[in-house]
Specification:
By secondary structure, the protein is of the alpha/beta class. The chain folds into 2 domains: 270 residues, Alpha-Beta Complex (Spore Coat Polysaccharide Biosynthesis Protein SpsA, Chain A); 70 residues, no CATH class. It has 15 helices and 12 strands. Strands 3, 4, 5, 6, 7, 8, 9, 10, 11 and 12 form a 10-stranded mixed beta sheet that branches. A two-stranded antiparallel ribbon has the order 1-2. Helix 11 runs antiparallel to helix 12.
């Protein structure tokens, strides 16, 4: 994943079948490519440290891929090899992997380049440090040849069948432009593949049932007004668990906004959901690594990114949201501003805390906590003294 720029995953205000990597005939892969893919992996295992062995892969030039996986990377030396191997050992072999190194100062570029020498499905692009993952993702999109587009960050992992399941949905449901799945968080080297995903824990399919149409297996087609649900209840879509038709992205005048430091991914999913048909696979297909340098550990940056993405979407959606849905979105924004106020209060930034609390009141009077607001006028030294007395 992009160090320092962990993409935001917001659950909301309240809180198929497996295919061998070599069944290429049924996938309609060009015969030249079928004859030259020669690799061996244990795709049923997530232990990319020991169960993955590359023999040789050669891809003739000019052949379009089923899917392109774009990976922005910045100073991810401890994680990038595992992330790449999780993609290169997919059960769907007709892929290209594009890693865009954003001027790393560690060995990220070196590790990725060494893997690329042995697997020509991996393309490594090096660029000057931009300071935002949106620039790197857009760089990857400019050169991607796949019919379908997926994303992973350089410290995350994906399940072995992630890339195969998206195209399967697209081919069965030609009107669908965007497929997303569940995601689970993990610390350390390897995820717990038996753990429930974030959306399953939040009871997403039950609480969003009015916007989900059950299909075969664990697939749900999203209602045409799923954008309204995303805006007011569960954003649901996370960057490492989404796959798109390239044609849907090409209809957008802007991909990932380069003027945002975070939250630009959620902004794109909102824009696409306004006009695209979505589908949800109720299964964990991506694993979101938590570590001290990830954006999720930067509380204020995460809060600000949430506010920016949902605030922009509030203006965008005014013409399609019902009155009650607008009120729910306003309450959501009010809670986010109130949380920002509390965060700044805890840091002793009283003036900024008051401004955030006032903004919360503008969106929803019910969210105005007068006591919390008044506490921002108490001098920090007195608050510290009171806190120490309570601790005694």
């Amino acid at each position: 994943m992009f160090r320092h720029y962990k993409p935001c995953f917001f659950i909301g205000a309240n809180a198929f079948d497996s295919r061998s990597a070599f069944e290429l005939d049924s996938l309609g892969i060009h015969s030249n490519l079928r004859d030259t893919i020669k690799c061996r992996c244990n795709a049923s295992s997530l232990d990319y440290r020991s169960n993955w062995q590359l023999i040789a892969v050669h891809i003739p030039p000019g052949i379009a891929m089923t899917a392109s996986i774009i990976i922005p990377a910045y100073n991810c030396e401890p994680y990038v090899a595992a992330a790449l191997r999780s993609v290169l050992s997919q059960t769907e072999s007709d892929i290209e992997v594009i890693l865009v190194d954003d001027g790393s100062s560690d060995n990220t570029l070196k590790i990725a380049s060494e893997l690329a020498e042995r697997d020509q499905r991996l393309r490594v692009i090096s660029q000057d440090h931009s300071g935002t993952p949106s620039v790197a993702r857009n760089t990857g999109l400019k050169v991607a040849k796949g019919e379908f587009i997926s994303f992973l960050d350089a410290d995350d992992l994906c399940a072995p069948t992630k890339i195969a399941k998206g195209p399967s949905v697209f081919r069965q449901h030609p009107t669908v432009d965007m497929v997303f799945s569940d995601t689970s968080l993990f610390w350390g080297d390897m995820p717990d593949t038996t753990a429930q995903g974030l959306l399953r824990e939040a009871q997403f399919t039950q609480l969003a049932a009015d916007f989900l149409l059950p299909q075969e297996g664990n697939l749900f087609l999203c209602a045409d007004n799923f954008y309204n649900q995303m805006s007011t209840q569960f954003t649901a879509v996370s960057t490492q668990a989404v796959m798109l038709r390239r044609s849907a992205l090409d209809r957008e005048s802007t991909w990932f906004r380069i003027d945002w430091q975070a939250g630009e991914d959620i902004d794109l999913w909102f824009r696409l959901a306004r006009h695209c048909k979505l589908a949800y696979i109720d299964e964990v297909l991506a694993y979101y690594r938590q570590h001290p340098t990830s954006l999720m550990q930067d509380s204020e940056r995460t809060i600000l990114a949430t506010i920016q993405a949902h605030g922009t979407n509030y203006e965008r959606g005014k013409d399609v949201l019902t009155n009650s849905q607008r009120q729910r979105l306003e309450a959501r924004l009010a809670r986010q501003h109130a949380f920002l106020g509390y965060h700044r209060f805890r840091q002793g930034r009283m003036g900024e805390a008051r401004a955030a609390y006032r903004k919360a009141r503008e969106f929803d009077e019910k969210q105005h906590n007068r006591l919390a607001y008044l506490k921002t006028y108490i001098p920090s030294k007195i608050l510290q003294w009171l806190h120490s007395r309570i601790q005694e």
